[in-house]
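Input structure tokens:
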């Protein structure tokens, strides 16, 4: 049984990432089987509750106000609209509902109160509620926790060294501080990144190093392939090769064996066979629904077919909590 380690070195991670492809997949699949049911994949749904007009300059993002993209900007959605979408997501088999807002950070205003209400509402459906709203203070994280938030997504996106090539309006420490605030509030941490931003192998290794040496690994690690969007500085980036995606997933799986590794953005350009390889290499979660936040995602029926072909069953909600002893849950 592979142990949980928080003392990985960059050299070790690089060696894993660069190991012969089939050895890498075999090792990752072994770690996966030791820690998870390999027939089970978590199905999550995303909803952009506030779209576009973001003051940040993330070079990949269609929602940054400064780039001219086709994104349909809208202010914060109403509670009822969000609840309707959450119910639909649940009916189509999702167990986690993630609400995203194109904010640099959360502000203590009416919109935040509205989001807290949405969190309460979705939680009452019995779904795992996740939010991704930008930077958070400790107090704001506590308020979200009280409202019933299960997880918070805040990606590192790339290595600390490459970060300023991609985003200049905030720094890596800002990201790490928010993750710490989420952890302190006892909210499950979802943090990963994007490949295909023009980064090198050392940047991919660096990002996994930062995640896997946190005192507690994130419970969820999304691996996104860049979805290049017209109008953003990264619109002409080359398509991410499946080999790189699999290497990244496998390396995350080996270094953080208990985490849910999420095959996130980019599935729309992958074949069933390629996605199957990602599951083999340790991915055990996807976003379902024909839209991610603003870009296309595979059709629900296509995902149903894929699950049938691979005999995959969707994971129940709150499984981590249910597996804990009553004493651990009470803590
Ligand atoms: N504004 C908040 C933030 O940046 O944390 C939350 C929303 S933001 C859109 C959530 C994540 O989506 C980003 O951290 C990034 O990893 C991912 N993302 C955004 N645009 C993407 C793209 N074009 N391709 C792949 N991933 C993308
Ligand atoms: C994550 O890592 N990927 C999701 C979720 N967390 C919020 C977002 C992907 C967004 C892709 C671009 C878009 O649809 O706007
Ligand atoms: Fe804004 Fe988030 Fe997009 Fe960056 S990734 S521009 S912070 S919405």
């Amino acid at each position: 049984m592979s142990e949980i380690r928080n003392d990985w070195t960059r050299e070790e991670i690089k060696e894993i990432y660069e190991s012969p492809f089939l050895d890498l997949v075999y090792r990752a699949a072994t770690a996966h089987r030791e820690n998870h049911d390999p027939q089970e994949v978590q199905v999550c749904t995303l909803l952009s509750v506030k779209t576009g007009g973001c003051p940040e300059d993330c070079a990949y993002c269609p929602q940054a106000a400064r780039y001219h993209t086709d994104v349909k900007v809208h202010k914060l959605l109403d509670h009822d609209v969000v609840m309707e979408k959450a119910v639909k997501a649940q009916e189509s088999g999702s167990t986690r509902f993630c609400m995203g807002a194109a904010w640099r950070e959360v502000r203590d205003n009416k919109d935040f109160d509205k989001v807290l209400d949405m969190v309460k509402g979705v939680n009452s459906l019995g779904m795992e509620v996740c939010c991704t709203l930008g930077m958070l203070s400790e107090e704001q994280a506590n308020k979200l926790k009280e409202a019933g938030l299960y997880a918070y997504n805040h990606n590192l996106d790339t290595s600390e060294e490459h970060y300023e090539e991609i985003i200049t309006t905030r720094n890596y420490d800002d990201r790490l501080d928010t993750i710490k605030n989420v952890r302190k509030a006892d909210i499950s941490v979802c943090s990963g990144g994007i490949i295909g931003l023009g980064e090198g192998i050392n940047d991919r290794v660096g990002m996994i190093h930062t995640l896997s040496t946190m005192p507690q690994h994130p419970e969820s690690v999304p691996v996104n392939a860049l979805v290049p969007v017209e109008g953003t500085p990264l619109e002409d980036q080359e398509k991410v090769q499946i080999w790189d995606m699999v290497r990244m997933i496998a390396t995350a799986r080996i270094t953080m064996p208990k985490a849910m590794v999420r095959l996130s953005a980019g599935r729309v350009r992958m074949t069933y066979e390629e996605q199957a390889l990602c599951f083999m290499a340790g991915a055990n979660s996807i976003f379902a629904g024909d839209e991610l936040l603003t870009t296309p995602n595979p059709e629900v029926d296509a995902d149903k077919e894929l699950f049938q072909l691979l005999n995959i069953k969707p994971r129940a909600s709150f499984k981590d909590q249910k597996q804990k002893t009553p004493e651990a849950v009470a803590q």
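Residues 115 and 309 are 38 Å apart (CA to CA). The longest strand covers residues 40-50.
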